[in-house]
Amino acid sequence: MNIVIVGAGRAGTSFEQALRAAGHRVRLVHHDDATDAAVADLVLLCVPDDAIAEVAATIATNDHTVVAHAAGSRTLGELSTHRRVASIHPLAVLSSTEVGAQRLAGATFCVAGDPLADDVVASLGGRVIRLRDDQRTIYHAAAVVASNHLVALMGQVQHLAESIGLDVEDFVGLAQQSLGDVRLVGPDAALTGPASRGDLSTIDAHLAAMDEADRSAYVALANAAFELAERRRLQMPA
Fold first, then answer.
1. Model confidence pTM above 0.85
2. 59-63, 139-143, 187-191 — which is least confidently predicted?
3. Which CATH number is associated with domain 135-235?
4. Taking the domains of the chain in order of start, what are their residue ranges?
5. Which residues fall within 8 angstroms of residue 5, CB to CB, at 6 or more apart?
6. How confident is the model over 114-150, as pLDDT tens digits?
7. Torsion angle of alpha carbons 55, 57, 59, 61, nearest 10°?
8. Which residue among 28, 50, 87, 193 has its CA within the 20 to 30 Å range from the CA of 1?
C-alpha cells in the first residue's frame, strides 16, 4: 500500500516506522508539504487535532485515495472535503519513534470510515474497536485518564516520596501490582487501602501530613475510591 503520513511528530514518525516494517511504501511529509497526495492509497494525518480540517482541505487527492486522521476525539466530519475518509486512533502511548512503532504493532485501534482503515490495522496485527460519533469524546477521555492522568498521579507519588528521601521508583512496583490486579479482577475487586476499609482517620492523617498543594488531588481520588468501594458493597450478595 502507498501511504503518505502528514506530520513528523512522535505519532507520525511512529506510524511511519511501524507501517514500513509491515511492508507498506511510506512517505513522511510535514503538514505544509502535503498538498499533492494523488498517488497515495492512504493519507494519514498525524497533526494536532485543531489543525486536521485545515490541513485536510489543502490536500489534493483523487477518488482512489483515502484521507484519514489519527485523532481519538474527532469525527470524520473533520475530513469533509474528501470523498473517502477514515480515522485510525491507536490506544497506545507513542512516547518516542522507536517505542511508539513497537507499540503500534498489535495495538488496539479505534477505527471509523473507509474499510481501508481495517486493512491497515490488520497489517499491523492490531485489534479494531468501533464507536458511534457521540461516544468518541468519552472514549478519548478514558484514554487520557488511563495514560496522561496516570502519569500525573505518579508525579504526585514522586513529590510525596522525595519529601521523605525516597524515590518514585520505590513505588512503581506497587503501582504495577495494582494495575495487574485491575486486569485480573477489575477495579471494584482490586481496590484496597483506607477508602476500601472506610478508614477515615488514616485518610485525615495523610491530609494533615502532606503539603497543601497535594491535598486536592488526594481528596478527589479518595472520594473516587470511596465511590468504588460503595459500588462494590452494593454489588455483594445479601
1. yes
2. 59-63
3. 1.10.1040.20
4. 2-130, 135-235
5. 12, 15, 16, 19, 26, 27, 28, 29, 43, 44, 46
6. 999 999 999 999 999 999 999 999 999 999 999 999 9
7. 150
8. 50
